[in-house]
Give the backbone structure.
Amino acid sequence: MLSTGALRAHLLAARLAGPVATSREVSLRSYRLFAARDPRVTLGLDPGRGWGERELLRLMADKCGVSGDPAHVAGPDVIDPERTMAGLDAFAGRLADAAVRRAPVLFGTGHPHRLLGFYAALADALSAVGCTVLTPAQGRRIDITTRFGVRTYNLDYVRGVALVREPGARVPGGGTGAHTHSPLPLRVALEAAADARGPLPELVVGDHGWVCGAGQLGIEAIGLADTDDPALFVGEAEGRVAVAVPLDDAVRSAYYLPLTRYVLNRACLSQ
């Protein structure tokens, strides 16, 4: 079992928390866009009320530990490791609850190059205790609006974790996919599951549009979020996202391995 002290040291050493690679400028830009309800930043969440930039900054200071000073406009952003550890504990608690009730679970990521291994290990653990890890709409084409225009992707699953990839980029089931913030893959997966009259997820685990899209539809959703992802923390504040864990979501994939071990142990899912 990784001790909390060792976990905290790892978070800081790997820059998962503390000063992170995400810049203050990028975070503040995201808060401005969220306040304007830009869909690139709302990630499928329809906020229950208006959120101004100053209010978002106060929320992110509370949830993540970023500076609440609006005059602080440059440099690296900061995540409080204590908040990250508290988030991981809550995240593990939701996984443990799902394991006890053998709930069907859907995993999805918009950061496959970084977070696929983290989610896949959790999917393996839940599957081992009898949870159904859902993989609906395998291979389905999805048109997603990006900053480069509308792009077509295919929905794929790797070790039970949903992602999107450009057509022909890799053989199905292999490699990693594309970075996306869109909630459309989640919606397509749910529609396919409903059409097949199979089980629907009682828990969605992931990031970006997977979590916000699920939370918006009333499905229990937990995930990881960086300082420039205010939507997950707004969703948590409004009671639609169950857990949003603040951390840098784009460090080297190997740096998430200690977090995997910690969460599995806390959830009593270690094999």
About this structure: The CA atoms of residues 60 and 66 lie 6 Å apart. The beta strands are 18-23, 76-79, 105-108, 141-146, 149-158, 161-165, 203-206, 220-225, 243-246. The chain has a mean pLDDT of 95.
